[in-house]
Amino acid sequence: MTESEDIDEGLAAPVWAVFGDLMTSLLGAFVLVLLGVLVTQIDLVNSLQSEIEKRRIEEQRRMALERALAIPLASGRVTLEHGKIGISGSVLFALGSDELRPEGRQLLQTLVQPLRVYLGERKELLMVSGFTDDRGVQRGNRRYEDNLELSAQRALTVTRALIEEGMPSSQVFAAAFGAEQPVASNGTEQGRAQNRRVEMAPVPRTAAKP
């Protein structure tokens, strides 16, 4: 073997060694990327399955609540949207008042039995929430400092009425939001009337306690 051939062979060996190390590094990087993609896909699939299961349970709850409240819903005085039972404030109370109208009490009476069954089957609680429009409390009404206080008293009035009509006190509690969380514009009388409302929503017992 000539001296030039020895030199060529000596140069070729390091080149092939570097090429082999490079390919090994690339292969390792490819494997890591592939593993990362697979882990991400698995996480996405699990998240998707979890979301599908959550929506399935929510749909079952909604359908069960619709069945339980079929008669009150058919009357048109009660609405059910996103698991919340809505009752217009004008059905329950006169403007600016927390005294329950007779027809309002009759309506609440029709809700007690189906709600008791529904809550009992799922071991849930009923949250009664009071809402108002954004108009300030009338000056002549000195019983309330503001809309939050008025909405709180209305929620308590409905809660007490439900208990008096047979709802176990351990299954229901009151909450107040005042003019927060409007469902319509307060720029019109129609919108303000929609915002003056009481909502009832079944909630898990764990969610009811801070």
From TrEMBL:
Biased composition (Polar residues): 183-193
Transmembrane segments: 26-46
Record keyword Thylakoid present: no
Annotated Gene3D superfamilies: OmpA-like domain (3.30.1330.60)
OmpA-like domain ranges (all copies): 78-206
InterPro entries given in the database record: Bact_OuterMem_StrucFunc, OmpA-like, OmpA-like_sf
Disordered as annotated region, ranges: 183-210
NCBIfam families: PRK09040.1 (NF006547)
Protein name, UniProt field: OmpA family protein
